[in-house]
Structures
1.
Amino acid sequence: MSRDLIIRLPRPGGSRVPWTVVDRDSGEIVADGLLVGDRPPLDGVTRALYLAPSSDLLCRMLTLPAKRDSEARQAAPFAIEDELAGPLEDTEIAVGPRRPDGTRIVHAADRTLIERWRRIATAIDVRPAWLLPEAMGLEAEAGDLVLADEDNDVVFLNRTGSGPAFGRIEAEPSALLFPALFSRLRPETVSITPRIRLPGLPAGETPKTIHALPAVNFAIAASRLDDADLKFLPALLGSRHSAATDWAGLAAPFHRAGVLAAAAFVLFLGFSLGEGLYLRSQASSLDARAEAAFRSAFPDVNRVVNLDAQLRQRLASVSGGSGSDFLRLAAGFAALIEGDEAFAVEALRYDAQSGALSVSATYPDFASFEALRDRALEAGLIVEDQGARQDGAIVRGEFRVRAAQ
């Protein structure tokens, strides 16, 4: 079971919103009513068709100088500006997808009226939903001008020229018998008769055949439209009512935020890369200094391959396997100069054979060295002077530290 919900949209100032449910297979009316008083039954309804008054919804088939949808949306206002009933800034324009022949359907309507139509579509909330002029359901061949009676107005479908044009003419009371009147008109008189000059009919073009229809059920006529014809209609009601989500349209408000986010991401990557390069440089510098200190402590080393492993191996060897001769001396010497900012150690070497630390250091004066020797004796260590020289305001000295016997 496949049914259509047909909504007749109101004109400006109108309040009645009739609806009709049509069985698509049989073409029969299942139910009808007014939107205010009766909630339409939606069982089996697979699409909603919103029929707009042809006089309030401009619908044109145009060949726009654009390949992409974004370019077509920019070109459409200039192509239909002369046909708009109101100012361009008060008009909402939508462009449909590109048809196989290169043309596009363009819809335009008053912005306030469109907002009202959208509220109606949102209240019903049936997808997919299509907005189309009421005359689009009329059947006509190329060269035909079809006129139909709709609430004492003349609704027409003109298929002359490159594509169909739809419209509505408000008839005078004397024109209520228009089927009989128009059926007698010769086609060549249509374009030159001021009273019935039709919008969308190019100057100099006349229809080959005029069909005047005394009564048309526009709901049943619209239900006969195939999805293949409707899919090229513009989404003037908004993307949320379309058959397929217009992701590009939904994403448009977030375009600027996306650009800013991408820029921030690029900056973050740049800063991260810069920080990584800086840290890598610092790590290389520290590795070089550690290797230099290792070579200074163990000058007999010819090649440094794995600094950590070689240092552990050297520490194990200098400890004599008993445990901590080197470490005990190093710890004892560190305790001697702890808190004494006057001493600056430049090199530290351990001689496993003599069991002594060879130290190169700077200090303010010779009295500082003598004070160091006194503290060493109290700690059970012996500091042996290996030579010193005055270098400006400091003394550069060489001495050995060993355990007292």
Note: Residues 343 and 363 are 5 Å apart (CA to CA).
2.
Amino acid sequence: MLAGAMLAVPHGPAAAAQTTSPDRFSVRNLTDQPLITTQVRVATDKAGNQDQGWSHTFGDEFPYPGQTIQPGQIIYFQLAVNYNGPAGQVTPSSTTIDYTIGAGGPAVHVSAYQNGKGWPSHETSFGCVSDDAAWTCSHDAHGADVTDATKQTKVVTDKQQQLELVNKLCQLGNANVSCTFDPKPTLTTTMMPYVTVGDVQYNYTEENSKHTWAQEWDNGTTMEVGGSYSPVDIEVQDVIKVEVKVTFDHEWGTSNSSEIENFVYVPPDYSGWIEAEIPAWQLTGNLHIVLGNETWTLPEVTFTTPAPPTGTCPGQVDGSKAGFCWTPRTQKRPIDLSKNPPPSTPPTS
């Protein structure tokens, strides 16, 4: 079907007798590119030669230009049934929806029709075609799947691309994407990088000062990418939990939080702050992502999570109970800040 062609939908087989409308249709995106809605057309007859308002054509769910179906996402739309009884006016509804696979990509056309009659004479039809043979649009009576025509398997080694794929595809609640983890048989103990906790105290007096505050530390699972750590709050976190429990008989925690009082002695003309180092577990392995006919393997992906308090923080009885080790830091305050308090951030070394 040409992108500019008007709708021409044949009558489909009669639906089974029922008392509620069956006219809810779906489009599911099983490609790694977004489906972008470019045009929505409506008509009152099968030839598509009479314009009909959107409010009459659609129900509570409707498509619109600019609507985007993300990879793995499914959207629904309804054709309204305006049945006025056997003696009333019969008003069919139909629509053609045009999508592109990615911005400016090949077009996909979805068509839906209902004859405007009541049950058991109510009939619907639904179809979907792709302009490019590299993608298929298979469908049944009420749902369409846009998929790559051939199976593809890719190995992604670039750390930034790995992170982008995980964040784009392994989202919580995305039932159409499979994210599985194949861990190596080694669970290592490490320390997560130092981070500044609390605020920074600048001592403008001529006496030593004791900077004290109550600190609650909360840190979740992370994914190591290119030597840095990125938070993980997506489906793979649950995958990691399952694999660690099954393989290593350990509980993989999502956070480790406890309140503790920290302090640092700050000399005159110095700034002082606290840095925290968090005991952690690390696990490395291959992450597999499957969407439709596409499979990505991400080798040597490392996940890190705070471990239970170890009690090994030197000289910090309270610190180890909080699940992190803390270290007081001080640094001489720059001379040009002697009259104007600096912002509450750690000084640069």
Note: The two ends are 65 Å apart (CA to CA).
